[in-house]
Amino acid sequence: MPSTPVLWHFPVSHFNEKIRWALDFKGILHVRKALFLDYLPRAWWATGRPTLPILFLDGKAIGDSTRILEALETSYPDPPLFPRSDDLRRRAVVLEDFFDEELGHALRAAILGPLFVDDPNGVIAILSLGMNLSGATKRVLRIVFPGFSAFYRFRHRINPRTVSAGPDKIAAALDRISAELQPSGYLVGDAFSIADLTAAALLSPLVTPKELQYHVPEPLPKSFAALRDSFASHDAFRWVAEIYRRHRGASTEVRS
Question: Where are the beta strands (DSSP E) in the chain?
Answer without folding.
Answer: 6-9, 31-34, 54-57, 60-63
